[in-house]
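Appendix B, Record 12. Input sequence as logged:
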Amino acid sequence: MKKYFAILLSLFVLHNVVIGQAKKPTIIVLPAMDWCKANGFVKTEMIFDEPKTMPDYDRALLDKPLLNDVLAVISEDMRNASFPPVILRNELKNLERRRAQDQIRRSKTGGGIAKSSIQLLREVAKADIEFHIYWEIEENGPRYRIKSYRLEGIDAYTSKPCGLAQGYGDWAYKNDVTESQLLIDAIAASMDGFRAKLQMHFDDLFLNGREIVLRIQTMDNWTKDLSTRDFGPKREQLSVIIENWVRSNTVKGRFDSPLTTDYSIEFTGVRIPLYSMEGWAMDGKMFATNLQNYLISIGINENEIAVTNYGLGEVELIFGPN
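Logged structural output:
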């Protein structure tokens, strides 16, 4: 009986330790794209030789000082709720260093992958959830109010919404309340419900894994394809080996039925663990690199397999001469 009680007690303690150590999602607060457009903080980037309109966060923080106050207050509110924030201003500095390193690398190798500033920012910040904030001011003589606001939670890996708060604010005299305080007061009433939605989303990630897209591609000049049976102890098709590995290394073996040909596989809805065995945050690149290492271990030439990621939640594993 004592032994049985001891086992139950140890299981209870282990359960509470695991729950207690479960990490909260990291967040980053950003001005929404439509807010940037409305205020003229946009820029054009060439992605795969096509012009794309992107938010200009650097200029927005420089030219709109109250934006710094808004982002800081929301970040601190989430920190107090145990959702650790990463700060946009700091991550933009890190992004500049990353761009400088990429420029040096491209000058040496003569190549590189075209990525938008949003994709690069996500790779640098590695936030789980983005908060996109939009607001519009209505004025009436000496008074003004928040005509409308929207605070939207976006999963940084899938770009899918995971929380929403919206509404409007009360009238106030301009001399009494700053615009940033006006917005913060308006948002405050809906923050409890917003945080609850975020926690529900993260609880789902913790239970079922975070979602990524994994693509397997073969180059035209590769001498094999995904139907090749030269690898592994059972000499199974390469596509079968890859699918079995994905099934064994996803949370509960969860992913959507892949689109498979002899030359490509696309896995969507791939649920990967939030953290590696070492406790590091798992993203698409780490997951694909683990697959790459496994395939090398069963006989694929390491010079014929490469990993390319697009942000945090979209990754390609490419077979062919490198």
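Confidence is low (pLDDT under 50) at residues 1-21.
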